[in-house]
Amino acid sequence: MKNEHEDDPVLDRFHFLVNAPALFNAVTTAAELRVFSFLSGKPGAQAEEIRAFSGLPAHQLRVLLQAVCTTGLLERRDGGYHNSAVAEELLAPDGPDSWRHILTGWKEVYYPAFAHMTQALRAGTNTALRIHPGDEPTLYERLAHNPPLEEVFHRAMTAFTLRSVDALIEQPVFGDVQHVLDVGGGDGSTSARLVARHPGMRSTVFDMPSVSRLADGGQDAGHSAGRPDRVDLLAGDIFTDPFPDGPDAVLFSHVLEIFDEDGILHLLGKAYASLPPGGKVLLYGYNVSDDETEGIFGARLGLYFNVLASGRGMAYPARDYERWLGRAGFEEVRTVGGLPYEHGLSLGVKR
Ligand SMILES: C[S@@+](CC[C@H](N)C(=O)[O-])C[C@H]1O[C@@H](n2cnc3c(N)ncnc32)[C@H](O)[C@@H]1O
């Protein structure tokens, strides 16, 4: 019998979607085993060569390669395996912006939490946080109890940020900024790129003490490529500790979406109070569409915040950020939208 939805693209998407968790893990495993890096140096390698390199038993490798081939990321021709163009660009490289780090972070931190989604959404709070030791209310604080996982998490976040940061640092608004306060600046990767692009600029990265240690290339962190001279660190709590005077711009990159309206207005109020007249505030991150029907990266992020990270927040539409900027007192409010990976930059000026 003909399925009445046979020609419906939603059906194709549904079929892919219901198998996606297994395929996601297959691709992540292949990346962790460096299969894509190996094939980059040896295109057309046979299964036996991949087996010798990866150390997997032959049958298990056969199962894995079949799974990855179904995604299109690997191709098989004349019995040999090749990276697709996408795998070659995103998964074969080993640098700090490799998607390999992102996949491992999502596998270790995000996706285990999503098994708790129904319960967490019903409860109205991030019940999946109980997977992580500690009694603090957010994932960011609890990760301080687990330094190896905290490092995996920040390596993934940095890799993703590096993939979208060029659109931020090239914005003309930075042309006359002298000193930026990078609130929730993580391991300092965004600031490092900003000051490298703008030689007259310096930055202060304000984040939690355990994260500041990562930004400093901390003893056992080892993943920060070294902090540039024009990037300073300020360790503390962005809610309870004061924002320093001095910076003429405050940047929130991937930070406000973690919180709810009260938290966001509190942080924007602190930014406004700390800035001199003419100072700028810059909100960079994911925006779902204004009608809240589009944005798959934003969808994943909103669920992750509510199930695990903070119990609130979402990839708010740009119009929400513009409204909050106005309420905090900022003028000349506008958004540069359509940036890569569903990103936008909302801006305001203190007059
Ligand atoms: C999603 S990450 C963004 C990192 C970086 N700005 C970027 O764009 O990649 C959010 C950051 O906010 C920091 N953060 C969250 N709550 C905080 C708090 N109460 N005080 C200080 N930092 C906080 C986290 O440690 C984390 O580094």
UniProtKB/TrEMBL annotation:
Keywords, A to Z? Answer: Methyltransferase, S-adenosyl-L-methionine, Transferase
Q: Name one GO biological process term.
A: methylation
The record's GO molecular-function terms, alphabetically, read: O-methyltransferase activity; protein dimerization activity
User: One Pfam family this chain carries?
Assistant: Methyltransf_2
Q: Which residues form the O-methyltransferase C-terminal domain?
A: 115-331
Give the O-methyltransferase dimerisation domain ranges. 23-92
What InterPro entries does this protein's entry cite?
A: COMT-like, COMT_C, COMT_dimerisation, SAM-dependent_MTases_sf, WH-like_DNA-bd_sf, WH_DNA-bd_sf
The highest taxon in the source lineage is Bacteria
What protein does this entry describe? Acetylserotonin O-methyltransferase
